[in-house]
Structure formats: structure tokens, C-alpha cells
Design a protein that fits this description.
The complex is a heterodimer of chains A (274) and B (358). With 274 residues, chain A is α/β, with parallel strands linked by helices. Helices cover 36% and strands 23% of the residues of chain A. Chain A has a 6-stranded mixed beta sheet, with helices on both faces. Chain A has a 4-stranded antiparallel beta sheet with strand order 2-1-4-5, covered by helices on one side. Chain A starts with 21 loop residues before the first strand and ends with a helix. Chain B is mainly alpha-helical and 358 residues long. Chain B folds into 2 domains: 35 residues, no CATH class; 310 residues, ABC transporter involved in vitamin B12 uptake, BtuC. Chain B has a two-stranded antiparallel ribbon. Chain B has a two-stranded antiparallel sheet with strand order 2-3. In chain B, strand 2 and strand 3 form a beta hairpin. The chains are: A alpha/beta (274), B mainly alpha (358). Chains A and B meet through helix 2, helix 3, helix 4 and helix 5 of A and helix 7, helix 8, helix 9 and helix 10 of B.
Chain lengths: 274, 358
Amino acid sequence: MNPRPSPAQFAGADDGIAKGDVLLKVDNVSLSFGGVKAITDISFDIRKGEIRAIIGPNGAGKTSMLNVINGFYTPQVGTITFRGEERRAMKPHHAVRQGIARTFQNVALFKGMTTLENIMAGRSVLMKRNIFWQMLWHGPALKEEIEHREKVEEIIDFLEIEHIRRTPVGKLPYGLQKRVELGRALAMEPSLLLLDEPMAGMNLEEKEDMSRFIIDVNQQRGTTIALIEHDMGVVMDLSDRVVVLDYGKKIADGVPDVVKNDQAVIDAYLGVAH
Amino acid sequence: MLYRVAGQYKTSYKADYALFPVKQDAWLLGVILLFAFVILPLMANEFTFRALLIPVLIYSLAALGLNILTGYAGQLSLGTGAFMGVGAYACFKLATIFPELNIVIVLALSGFFSAAIGMAFGLPSLRIKGFYLAIATLAAQFFLVWLFQKWAWLYNYSASGAIQAPNIQMFGVTVAGARASAMTQYYFVLCVVAVVTFCAINITRGRIGRIWKSVRDMDIAAELVGINLMKAKLLAFFVSSYIVGIAGALFVFFWRGAAEAELFDIQLSFRVLFIAIIGGLGSILGNYLGAILIVALPVIIGAVPSALGLPISPSMVEHLNVMIIGLLIIGFLILEPHGLARLWAIIREKLIIWPFPH
């Protein structure tokens, strides 16, 4: 059987950016749908190797922000700079190629496929053999498949989901589906991982498991993480820096202890007349 | 007892990726191939070849093509009949323009024509899904059949408007045309089907198969794991139409001998779609099971009552056939949307744990 992967094997994608330097920078981004302003003039940055939380009340524009970062929405104003490259409009599959992976608020797995296939699908962009090799299967295509299978098995080991390797994901309980989805995102070997409410709807034990995985991903693989989460205990414990959104505007940005005591944040959460 | 997986350990990923990780499956396939290549041809007569064996293979192949598009990539198509027609007409033109060319090469080339046309009619899939896409492919169905009728160059200006398979020899044996023996044609079709199936299994279980299934299951998520939806869908149309085109060429050259444009009308599309649905969308095996059922059904309905001494008219056979197929489709869609292939999978699961299910 496979030995448990050591941290050394778990090197994250090398993107030539030193730990602590700016990995992603959002500059004056505004996004609106018709007359609805989802995001208004937001700027912040994400540094290499940190866990960055994005929080805010419902409808604050957190998910829209993630969608802008990974190219799913194109903001009307502003730029995104990722690994030193500035861009505004791009296709999501380009973002993946650049090293941005994400999970979804509502689980978005491929229901008809097994856990193994789902995570392997996450490696599609990293696999190269064309259809003619695929038809033959033996030779280069098989070699490639096995190489990637080994990486995927490392992730399966890491997330402790060996027992559901061959189970169609549609049959799995919610907590495990979330875990498989994290696995699929990890399989892309991202340098920036966007997690959209990874713990929504989980019980305490599942939250603890998931928190442990997030910390391990961050520390062992060196993956930078941007996290949306509503559980304040989790956010304050996990994250290095927090950005707070409310009604599409940034109202606070800083280390958890500062943000926690910020009057604007308290007002946004408790609700005062705007 | 029959399926005992205990003790069959995989010690490498390579072993895990064998075509048949369970060795009983390999034996079963061996038995089926032995039947297909040796025992059936020994037992079959001209009628059995022409009415059962050859059409089962050709319909399976067409359903396999459609299944790649609909079952794996999730793009509904009603243009299968027309794409078969493109393959058949392309094969006819190539075979008459280059009579010296080996028939295998002609077949392989004619697939590219239907693949290109299929891809062109697959372009709407980039914007529309589901039933709307089905309507777009329906346009292909009607347009292409109209073209087959009106463009006389396609049927070499023959007075009847039909295409006729010329006598074609391969290595000194007549394989197509009026002089070809049914057994030769059966073997030829069987080999083509076996090779295409092998390739299809490999494509669908590897990277490309996973990409197609991701697009089918959730296209937005597929895009966000880095899959280029446009490429994935067009590739599915390409591969699917290629296989369907070859099936169409075999249909005319190795079974019917001649064909008019009307042969490739929507009835044919539906028949292939029914085979894929009854057999099981998203499965390779299902195409064969479905084709056996659909092709054998009218033969059985015609043969059984007369064998029992009951008089039955040919039109009654036809009516019964339509009714039973209709019932089967409704039944499968409601009770087992994954078709005969899933039934087999369930039986296999049960056999593996039988006789101790706990």
C-alpha cells in the first residue's frame, strides 16, 4: 500500500513568488448586474502562503468576489493582478491554468462519477496525451494515467477518503462530498485555492476535520487560501488576515483581532440603520 | 460463486487499470468473442446473417457513436440517421472515385466526412442545451436528407436516385456488393466493430472520457476545473459522428447493398436513439444489448406465433413490434433510466456476493 505522503512530497505549485509577497491583487474592482451593484470599488491583496478570509453578511458580494477572481464574472471596472499578470476579462479555464482552483458553496461535483474519477477530472488540465494515444491506452497514455493516479491517491490518502474511492459521489453524505470537492480542487495543484463556505451545513466534528485539512493544505503544500465562511470561530482561528464586505463595499481589512473589534464590522453584523 | 473477486489483489495501478480487473469478466468476454467469431458463423445461415447478426452489429456501432455524444458528453442529438447517411454517401463517392483504394481506408476516410459535418452541426451546442440542442440537430436531420435527394452528384446521377454498393474486393475476397457472401461481410463488420469498440472503451475511461462526463454532469463546474467546454463538446461531436458515419457506411456497403436518401430519415435516428436508451446511456455494453433487443424483437415476434401454430400477419408483427418497443422505452425511462447495461451491472454485483449477501 501507499505510505502516507510526507510533507516533502506535498510541494505546492512553484510560482516563483516568495512566501509573504503579494500573490493576487484586486484593484478598484466594481461589478454590477444591470442596476444591481454587487461589488463597489474593492481593493485588497492576498499574500503568498496566507489564509485570507472574506467575510460579510448575506448578499455582501463575497461569492461575486470569488467569481471575479477566477474569471467567471468580468468586472466592469478595475483589474486583477495574479502572479504579476494584470487582467480583467478571462475565461475560467484560463484561470485554472494559471493556478486558481475553487470549491463551491453548493457542492458542484460530477454526480455520475466516482470519487476517484472526480478527483482525476481535476487533473484534466495537467494531462496532455491526445486522443490517438488515448485510443490505444497502452503506452504513453497509460503511463500518464498512472503518474496522475499516484498524485490523486496522495490526495485521497491526505483527505482520508480511501474507503469511498469507488463510490459514485451522488451517493455520498454531504460532508464527504465537500471533502471530495476539496480533493478535486487540490488535484489541480493550485497556487491559490478559493474555498466558498467549505463548512456550510456541517456539524462540529466535520468542521474540525475540514479545518484540519485546510490548515494542512496551507502548511504542508504551501497553498495560499482565500476562504469565505460564516462561522466566525473558524474564521478567526484559521485566517491570517480578514477582509470584511458589506453591501458590496469593503468595510474592514486586517488581522482577525483588529477586525473583530472594528465598529463598522460589528454594526454590519448586528445591523444598524445605514 | 461464478464471480468470486476475493483473492484477486491489485498490487500496482497498472493492474488496476487492466481492461478487466476482475478475471471472470475477461473469461466472459472470451466466451462471447468465441461465439461471435466461431460458433455463430458455423451455425448461421444466410437469413440469420442478414436479418440478425449483421444488423445487430451495425446498429450497435451507430448506437455506440450516439452514446458517446448523448450518454457520455450529455449532448442530445436527433441527427444520427443523417450522420450515418453522410458516412454512407461519403463512402460511396470515395469508393467510386478511387476504386483501387482499400475498403478499410475508404471506410476510415468516410468517417472524417461525417465527423466534420457532425461537428458543424454541433456548433449550436456551445450556446444551447438539452431539448433545444435536439431541435438544432433535427435541422441537420432534415437538411441532410434533403441534400441526399437533391444533389445528384452524390448518387452519381443514377436514374433511381439510390446509391448502390459496388463490388469491392479485399485481398482477392469480395467483401461488398451483390457478389459478397454474408459470412464474409459478417466477419468484416465484426472486425470493424471490435476495433472501434476497443478504441471507444479506452477513450471513455481515460482523460477525455472524464472530461465528457464532467461536461455532462455539471458544465459550469467542468469549466471551473479548467475544461474548455467548446473543445470538449466539439470533440464529442467529432468522435461520435465519426463512429456513426462508419456505421452508416457499413449499413449500406455491408448490409443493405443499396440505399435511398429516405433510408436515413428520422426513423433511423429514433431507432438508434431507442437502442441507446434501452441499452443504457453512458455505457458501452448497453449498445450491444439494446441492439440485440431491438433487432431481434421483430424476428422473434414473427417466428414465435407461427412456430406455435398461430397465424400472424406481417402487418400484425409490425404493429406488435412498435407497441412493444414503445412500452419498453416508457418502462425503461421510468424504471431503469440506465437501461439494460445497469440491469447487467446489478446482476453482476449480486453474483459477486452470491450466495452470501451479508
